[in-house]
Design a protein that fits this description.
Number of helices: 11
Number of strands: 10
Shape: elongated
CATH class of the largest domain: Alpha Beta
Helix content: 25-40%
Strand content: 15-25%
Number of domains: 2
Strand order of the largest sheet: 2-1-8-9-10
Oligomer: single chain
Largest sheet: 5 strands, parallel
Order of helices and strands: EHEEHEHEHHEHEHEHHEHEH
Distance between the termini: 14 Å
């Protein structure tokens, strides 16, 4: 892994999730340009969340989509998720599993890399779900592929939405200035919504300079969306981890130099 030699890297993650990646970039000699294009807020249905969490023994499996799903479920329920005696917990990704561990909740299933819904569906335990009741804890408007596939396999699947995604009120002047001065080197985006919001938050006049910059994403699905939006130079990190993103940023930076 080489140094970034002052390369300016746009970090678009929500502010509360961006600092570790920013720190890694700066330790490698880069400049982390913080520009959160997504914010996470709790849903307005706290009583409904509490009611569902009080009846978790009705479900055979709980699937937590993200660490946000864990943390906002806890927040809505006074910091507690009832212990499950004969039920199973699945976490999509290590960060989600860590959030559950911090809350004292053991995890039964973590999919193999790349830690996504497809990997979870490939796990043997998710093949034999006929007649099982499954609760997916997630944010509003998430992908439906996981639930749809589990239903096709005979499961009774319900959602518990515990957070929502919004576009933050972020001053874009510093990003526009860097674009106009050709001083932005790499963009990182960890979701399709983050990428779409980036375009919304910047004037159309600044889209073409964005499209010509190296873009680091964390899945082929996001790469496909980025291509459709107009980005030209897209690289996919090996995993969604900050370390994998940094390695791909390094590779892109070597291509620039």
């Amino acid at each position: 892994m080489t140094g970034l030699n002052g390369a300016r890297v746009l970090v678009t993650r929500p502010a509360h999730q961006a600092e570790n990646l920013c720190r890694l970039i700066e330790e490698q000699g880069g400049v982390a340009v913080r520009f959160p294009t997504l914010a996470i807020a709790e849903c307005d249905n706290r009583l409904a969340i509490q009611k569902t969490l009080s009846g978790l023994d009705l479900f055979h499996w709980l699937i937590f989509i993200s660490s946000n799903a864990v943390n906002f479920a806890l927040k809505a329920n006074d910091g507690k998720i009832p212990q499950l005696k004969a039920r199973h917990i699945a976490a999509i990704g290590k960060a989600t599993a860590n959030a559950l561990a911090i809350a004292g909740i053991p995890v039964d299933l973590i999919p193999e890399q790349p830690y996504n819904s497809e990997a979870l569906l490939a796990a043997p335990a998710m093949q034999a779900v006929q007649g099982k009741r499954i609760l997916i804890v997630r944010g509003e408007g998430g992908r439906d592929e996981l639930a749809d596939t589990l239903r096709e396999r005979g499961a009774d699947v319900q959602y518990l939405n515990v957070y929502k995604r919004i576009i933050p009120s972020t001053n874009n002047a510093h990003v526009i200035a860097l674009l106009e001065q050709h001083q932005l080197d790499v963009i990182t985006a960890t979701s399709g919504e983050v990428l779409q919001n980036l375009l919304i938050m910047l004037d159309v006049a600044h889209h073409q300079p964005l499209f010509s910059l190296p873009l680091i994403v964390v899945s082929d699905r996001i790469k496909q969306l980025a291509t459709e939006l107009g980005f030209k130079r897209i690289a996919v990190a090996d995993s969604p981890s900050d370390e994998a993103i940094l390695e791909t940023v390094n590779q892109s930076n070597r291509g620039i130099a």
